[in-house]
UniProtKB/TrEMBL annotation:
Reaction catalyzed: ATP + protein L-histidine = ADP + protein N-phospho-L-histidine
Enzyme Commission number(s): 2.7.13.3
Boundaries of every Histidine kinase/HSP90-like ATPase domain copy: 118-187
Name of the protein in its database record: histidine kinase
Length: 223
C-alpha cells in the first residue's frame, strides 16, 4: 500500500488485488482478525471515555454518566453485530445498513472522543459479503482517523459517504484533521489490503492541510 504524503495526491493510497481460491481462507481469517481488532480498539476508546466521565463527574451527575456509558455499550454491541454478521446469501439495502453502521460508529467510537460524524449514503443493494467487508474497511478507516487525526482540535469532524457511480461503489472517509504524513502501517493496513483483495476493491487517498480523504472503490460486478 502506498504511503500518505503531507500534500494532496491522488496516489496517496492505492491497492488493487485479484483474489484466487487459495486466498479465500486467508481473506476470511483477515475478516475475523479485523472484527477482533475493532473490538479491542473500541473497548479502549470506551474505557478512556468512562474514566474521563467518572473522574470529572460529581455525585449528582453519576446517574447521567452511567446513562452515557449504557448508551455507548449498547452502540458497541450494535456495531459488533453489524461487523460480525456473515450471511453471504443475502442482498442488503445499502442505505439502511450504512446509516445504521454510521450511527453505531458515532455513538461507540466518535462521540466518546468528542468527534462529530456526518454521513451521505446512497440507496442500492449489495451482496452481504461485500457489504460487511466494506463496513469493516470503513470502520477501520474511521477508527484510525479518530485515533490519529485530531491531536488538538475542538471542531473534529469525520464524514462518511457512499455513492454508486460509473459501475462501482465509492465509499469514502473524510476527516478535517492534521493530514496524514506517513504510510498506513501495522495490523490495520494489512487487514485493509486483505479485505480489499477479497472484494476486488482498491483504495485511493489524498492528504493535506485540510485533512485526509480515503476512498474504497469496488466494482459492482465484483463477486
Amino acid at each position: 500500500m502506498s504511503g500518505i504524503n503531507a500534500r494532496p495526491n491522488d496516489d496517496v493510497v492505492r491497492s488493487q488485488f485479484v483474489a484466487s481460491l487459495d486466498d479465500q481462507s486467508r481473506d476470511w481469517e483477515l475478516v475475523l482478525r479485523e472484527s477482533h481488532h475493532r473490538m479491542k480498539n473500541t473497548l479502549t476508546i470506551l474505557g478512556a471515555s468512562v474514566r474521563r466521565d467518572f473522574t470529572r463527574t460529581g455525585t449528582r451527575d453519576v446517574s447521567l454518566a452511567a446513562d452515557r456509558l449504557e448508551r455507548r455499550i449498547v452502540a458497541f454491541g450494535r456495531l459488533y453485530q453489524l461487523l460480525s454478521d456473515n450471511d453471504d446469501h443475502t442482498a442488503i439495502p445499502v442505505a439502511a445498513f450504512f446509516e445504521n453502521l454510521c450511527g453505531a460508529i458515532s455513538e461507540a467510537v466518535l462521540e466518546p472522543a468528542g468527534i462529530r460524524c456526518e454521513a451521505a449514503i446512497e440507496s442500492g443493494t449489495l451482496p452481504a459479503s461485500q457489504c460487511h467487508r466494506l463496513a469493516l474497511m470503513l470502520t477501520e478507516l474511521v477508527t484510525n482517523a479518530a485515533k490519529h487525526a485530531f491531536p488538538n482540535r475542538n471542531d473534529a469532524l469525520i464524514r462518511i459517504e457512499t455513492a454508486n457511480r460509473d459501475g462501482a461503489w465509492f465509499c469514502t472517509v473524510i476527516d478535517n484533521g492534521i493530514g496524514a504524513t506517513g504510510p498506513l502501517q501495522g495490523t490495520g493496513s494489512r487487514i485493509l489490503e486483505g479485505l480489499a483483495r477479497s472484494i476486488h476493491a482498491r483504495l485511493q487517498g489524498e492528504a493535506g492541510e485540510d485533512g485526509t480523504r480515503v476512498t474504497i472503490v469496488m466494482p459492482i460486478t465484483a463477486a
